[in-house]
Amino acid sequence: MKKIAAAIAMSTIAASATAGGLEEPQMEAPIIVEAAASSSAPSAEVVMMLAFLTVFGAAASH
After folding, report:
1. How far apart are CA 16 and CA 3, in angstroms?
2. CB atoms near residue 46 (< 10 Å)
3. Which of 7, 28, 37, 42 could form a disulfide with 46 if both were Cys (CB 3.0 to 4.6 A apart)?
4. What is the pTM of this model?
5. Could you tell me what percent of the chain has a pLDDT over 90?
6. Where is the signal peptide (predicted)?
């Protein structure tokens, strides 16, 4: 009788030790990075191109 009681006690302990695996896994939210919106001011490339065209146009007209 003691062996049966010990076997029941051990099986109960073993069953409760593995019961933690039944919990729903926690999922981490993905990290979303948004690109910053460009400003409405003209970029340096556009300004340099317009300056070049102005100088080139002035030189070509003379």
Report:
1. 20
2. 10
3. 42
4. 0.34
5. 2
6. 1-19
Give the model confidence (pLDDT) of 30-57 as tens digits. 888 887 766 666 678 888 889 999 998 8
Structure tokens at 39: 């400003």
Reduce the secondary structure of 1-62 to three states and give it as a string.
CHHHHHHHHHHHHHHHHHHHHHCCCCCCCCCCCCCCCCCCCCCHHHHHHHHHHHHHHHHHHC
The answer to whether the Cα torsion of 51, 57, 59, 62 is positive or negative is: negative
* Region for 33 from its dihedrals, namely left if φ exceeds 0, alpha if ψ lies in -120 to 50, beta otherwise: beta
